[in-house]
Amino acid sequence: MSIDWLYPLTGVLYLLVAWHFWRTRWHGVAKVAAWEPYALLLPLLLHLLLLRLTISTPEGLELGVGNATSMVVGLTVVVYWLASFHMRMEALHAPLALIAALAVGFSWLLPAEHLVADSGTLIFRLHLLIALLAYSLFTIAALHASLMSVVEKRLHHIDPQQAGLNFPPLLTLENVLFRLVGAGFALLTLTLVTGVLFSEQLFHKPVELNHKTVFAVLSWLVYALLLSGRKLWGWRGRVAVRWTWLGFVMLLLAYLGTHFVMEVILHRTGGE
């Protein structure tokens, strides 16, 4: 039975969520409807079902750039949705739902052509889960940093049309940002450590100094400097936003960017 119909259905549901929260949270409607905390749940469940049906195969995991992007974004939505019950993050519903819709469409357009064989071992699954959680937290952090920029601009350039926007205070956003970056940095550190120590078991070869390794280490260094700058020199505001995005771009280039070039542009496939 074809599952192609699940892609547009999931994408449309995400777009409806994005439209609703853009129309409300970004246009001054402060009242929270009883159903809104669960608005992401239906498209998220369909998204997770799609990932289950398309990634896991008897031969291994299909982790082409489309599936990998969709998986990272899907887990990002899971982490964000759970965190939203404990933090004021509803302003990110709209951009994150839009990104999720695009990720689902991306995985639909790009066939899964990167089979990772022998992916059933416990160490591999733990390594993959830790890496995905790190990606997810840094994705939320990057979106959160963008929201901080919007709020900061509002403070310096008052726009009557935006006066009623229901955003948390800048200091609250900043504290949440560094909590996200701190947790993501810990997971990224674990990812790099397990990748180095268990490279033979994970990838059947020693650690290589390739583009993926270089960008991953550069990302780790950027986030390490950001957290150190926060602790030692009180970095905040625009400096924190810029360093957060710089680390995120490095992280994207470490995996998704390089795989996009190899699979889509150079048409090179195959497992690691």
Give a brief description.
The protein has 9 helices and 3 strands, in the order ααββααβααααα. With 272 residues, it is mainly α. 36% of the residues are buried.
What does this structure look like?
This protein has helices spanning 6-24, 41-55, 65-83, 93-109, 122-156, 170-197, 199-203, 211-233, 237-265; strands at residues 56-57, 60-62, 115-117. The protein contains nine helices and three strands, in the order ααββααβααααα. Strand 1 (56-57) and strand 2 (60-62) form a beta hairpin. It is flat, with a radius of gyration of 19 Å. The two termini are 30 Å apart. It has 272 residues and is mainly alpha-helical. Mean pLDDT is 83; it is low at 262-266. Helix 1 (6-24) runs antiparallel to helix 4, helix 3 runs antiparallel to helix 4 and helix 5 (122-156) crosses helix 9. The protein has one domain (6-265). It has a three-stranded antiparallel β-sheet with strand order 1-2-3.
